[in-house]
Write a structure and sequence with these properties.
Elements (H helix, E strand, L loop, with lengths): L1 H12 L5 E17 L2 E19 L2 E7 L5 H15 L16 E3 L13 H18 L3 E19 L4 E19 L2 E6 L2 E3 L5 H5 L3 H17 L6 E2 L2 E3 L1 H12 L5 H4 L19 E4 L20 E6 L2 E2 L6 H7 L7 E2 L8 E2 L3 E4 L15 E13 L4 E13 L2 E5 L3 E6 H6 L1 E4 L7 E6 L3 E7 L3 E3 L5 E3 L3
Parallel strand pairs: 4-6, 10-17, 16-23
Antiparallel strand pairs: 1-2, 1-5, 2-3, 5-6, 6-7, 6-8, 9-25, 10-24, 11-12, 11-16, 12-13, 14-15, 17-18, 18-19, 18-20, 20-25, 21-24, 22-23
Length: 462
């Protein structure tokens, strides 16, 4: 495909564009859904297409096509669109200068998901359904979803970048419902890899591991006690901390959103309690959402969003790096060739502290230990609300009874100031699908963190 893309770049030089990038994709995409052992959705398709983005007179033109034989016309159309849009722009778009790269990156899955028989995939889902059903007789419904993808991505730019990289995904997601008399509960769990093949679901995210997690959480929700509303001390575990890092804080540090967010104008200021560090790490090799280069061909790097309690830097693409005078960080990502690259997180986390985990519970007469989330939302003013699907009371420094239908809320920038202890023990990451007009697979996490009373507000169903 490189030959075709390079010819398109050559054509663009004759049409007056100051910058052109051409992104091509080819590959296999699959989605399967099973509801109570019945296949309710099964789609497979071969995807092939190209995106052209042209910068002319300070404006973008963007065109996608599925027929690469018409690529020359797509280039002409993208440049024409940019020329038409340019007079109406108040501020011309400029791009930060970057180093160009030429590289072919190879994937090495042991079992490419496109070559795994459909019968094997259905067996995986049936096995998970049975494990969940057998966990507790009160489980009433089980949905299992899997997504797989395998292919190649290509990027050629008028500046000389030429990169080929793999596109790989295996993703699993059960949703479990349970009922005990008038009480009902629901829980979910998901895991994924964008670096391994089907072997990840065979060896790591197995039906037993994923199914047991989802079933256990649904059971705990049936048996938990009602929460007490108000503001009490709490400890949040890695999956909840990851959600706060991504949803409630990470989006505030995406440069295209920062100007209208609670982090607007605060770079260089103290925004968190002593000892707080938060990063988006594009060098976190092997984690979901991480790749060597972003979709503008910029080398991925670690972004120190909060360093020693200070808001230090933002996540950028080339356009916003030039606009705010900051370095490019490698955060430009596109869901597919059908979308333009925009600023997205990759692997976002709070960094380790210096406390033993058990120390975080000491001195809490009553509070909550929030272990896993069901879903949530946040706003650019830093307000957030998250439903918790696994939580426990903390009584006299000890973990106590499970809690059902707990929700947490607050203002994330205020919560940062209420952090008073951070665990030093390693943590696992949670996997998410972030929406920002287009989907991006991301990973997030952090060590167990304790918030003083007032850092997080507790309530009932979210």
């Amino acid at each position: 495909m490189f030959d075709v893309l390079e010819k398109a770049i050559d054509k663009s030089r004759d049409l007056g564009a100051s910058y052109v990038e051409v992104r091509g994709e080819s590959g296999f995409i699959e989605y399967i859904q099973m509801d109570d052992s019945r296949i309710t959705a099964l789609t497979q398709r071969l995807e092939r297409g190209v995106a052209v983005r042209a910068l002319v007179d300070g404006a973008w033109g963007f065109v996608t096509i599925g027929d690469i034989d018409n690529l020359d016309k797509a280039v002409s159309d993208a440049i024409s669109m940019a020329k038409t849009a340019a007079p109406s722009r108040r501020e011309p778009i400029e791009l930060a200068e970057v180093k160009t790269y030429e590289e072919v990156i190879k994937a090495s899955p042991k079992k490419d998901p496109r070559h795994v028989p459909i019968e094997e995939k259905i067996k995986y889902m049936n096995d998970m359904t049975k494990i969940i059903r057998d966990y507790d007789t009160r489980i009433t419904a089980v949905t299992v979803k899997i997504r797989t993808a395998s292919g190649q991505k290509y990027l050629v730019t008028s500046e000389g970048t030429k990169i080929q990289s793999p596109s790989l995904l295996v993703w699993t997601y059960p949703w479990v419902s349970a009922k005990d008399g008038p009480r009902m509960s629901a829980a979910r769990y998901e895991d994924a890899s964008t670096h391994q093949g089907w072997e990840f679901l065979e060896q790591v995210a197995t039906p037993e591991v994923i199914g047991t997690q989802a079933a256990r959480k649904a059971k705990l929700q049936l048996e938990g006690v009602a929460p007490k509303a108000g503001a009490v001390p709490c400890v949040c575990a890695p999956r909840v901390i990851g959600t706060l890092a991504h949803e409630a804080l990470g989006h505030l540090a995406e440069a295209d959103l920062t100007v209208n967010s609670a982090f607007g104008g605060k770079v260089g200021e103290v925004v968190a309690a002593d000892g707080v560090n938060m990063t988006d790490d594009g060098t976190n090799t092997g984690k979901v959402g991480v790749s060597k280069y972003d979709d503008e061909g910029v080398l991925s790097s670690r972004v120190d969003i909060i360093k020693d309690s200070v808001l230090t830097e933002l996540m950028t693409n080339r356009e916003y790096a030039a606009k705010i005078g900051q370095r490019t960080t490698g955060n430009a990502r596109a869901e597919s060739y059908l979308f333009q690259p925009i600023i997205r997180m990759r692997s976002t986390q709070f960094e380790l502290g210096n406390h033993a985990r058990e120390e975080l519970f000491e001195g809490i007469d009553f509070g909550y230990y929030c272990v896993d989330f069901r879903g949530g939302q946040a706003q650019t003013n830093a307000s957030f609300q998250v439903g918790i699907q696994e939580a426990y009371e903390i009584v006299n420094g000890e973990i106590g009874r499970p809690v059902t239908d707990l929700s947490i809320s607050g203002i994330a920038t205020d919560s940062l100031m209420k952090i008073d202890a951070i665990s030093k023990e390693p943590f696992e990451y949670e996997i998410g699908r972030c929406g920002k007009g287009q989907e991006a697979l991301v990973s997030s996490g952090g060590p167990d963190i304790r918030f003083a009373a007032g850092g997080i507000t507790f309530g009932g169903k979210a």
